[in-house]
Amino acid sequence: MGVRFDLRFPVIVAALLVVGLMTVSTAALSPRVSPGIFQKQLLGVGLAALPILLMWWAGRERIYRAAPVLYALALLLQASTFVIGKDVNGQQNWIVLGPLQFQPLELLKLSLILMLPLVMKEGYRGLRSYLLPLVVFLPALGLVIVQDFGGAMVLSVMFLAMLLVFRMPIWHLLIVLLTVGVAFPTVVFPHLKPYQQTRLTIFVDPYKDPRGNGYQVIQSIIAIGSGGMMGKGYLHGTQSHNGFVPASHTDFAFATWAEEQGLVGGIGVLLLYGALIWGLAGMASDAPRLQDQILFAGVLGQIGFQAIENIGAALSMLPLTGITLPLISYGLSSLVSTLTTLALAYVVFRDRFEKMI
Question: What secondary structure letter does DSSP report for 318?
Fold first, then answer.
């Protein structure tokens, strides 16, 4: 029997959270950013404590039992955005209830990470094994992809990571990748909205439209480069503070951090994410049940892909999709969801040797 707790995991999460709070606090000095975002981010940390404590008390078995209800609720809320959703940046995928504003997508991610392992716990046993996972996944993907292509990408990578641990044949994976590779440029891309098409292609040559669609990426690169080796120092980032970097607290939070902390600070963040992913992989390898291994794969797929995509976009190496940087970008929904998801993984790891439901 392995160790019950891995204390390194919460320390890594706390370190990334500190980086996030520092980034949001300095981004708040930009004239492009609404005041008070640092206080709201702190509020998000406090709000996350409630579901974390609830899961810690409930334990693995009760959490899995609640998965179908959570999944149904998440689908209902995501579907309701088509009727009562608030439009934010051209995407009608937010729900506003008085002072509370949240993105149902975040709850949907969490519910899929819980629900899919329940229907995949027997592993691959022929083509019929895909039926229940697809019945669970496709409705969620269909509701999201209409309004949020970046969110749909996150869900798809999560599902793919889970399928790999599900022990799907490699040749099935190759068929899926080939199908996506053919269908995306010929079927999906032509039906995307013009601004979505531009965001997916402008990273190749942002200087083709430096005052328009390429402006954000160019300013991000300038900010990161201006940080040099050691950075300009905390609260001394001129590019972000003077409003040159758009979305310096969300899409380009990494640029804000790298400008002030330099190459050393940027590499430090990459190492922290690497350690977090390594920790999740270690949890999966130490879990005796395939069901729990699949859950860890979903968490790893979500966190890992979001980190790679966000940082890659800030460096003009990947398309700009509006995906947040876990634990660092500003956003109450994203922060609470990410902390809850990581706490879920930790609780399942804690209880991995207990009786199976």
Answer: S
Q: Is residue 356 part of a domain?
A: no
Total number of domains in the chain: 1
| Pairing state between β 91-97 and 86-88 | antiparallel
**What residues make up the domain containing 219?**
8-350
Q: What is the DSSP letter of 267?
A: H
For residue 91, the surrounding DSSP H or E stretch is: strand 91-97
Distance CA 62, CA 149 (A): 33
Let me know if residue 105 belongs to a domain: yes
Q: What is the pTM of this model?
A: 0.93
The DSSP H or E segment spanning 227 is: none
Confidence band (pLDDT; 50, 70, 90) for 1?
very low
**Distance of alpha carbon 213 from alpha carbon 198, whole angstroms:** 7
Q: How confident is the model at residue 122 (pLDDT cuts 50, 70, 90)?
A: very high
pLDDT above 80 for 88: no
- Hey, what are 115's tokens? 């629900």
Strands (E), the chain: 86-88, 91-97, 100-102
pLDDT digits (tens, 9 = 90+) for 295-327: 999 999 999 999 999 999 999 999 988 899 999
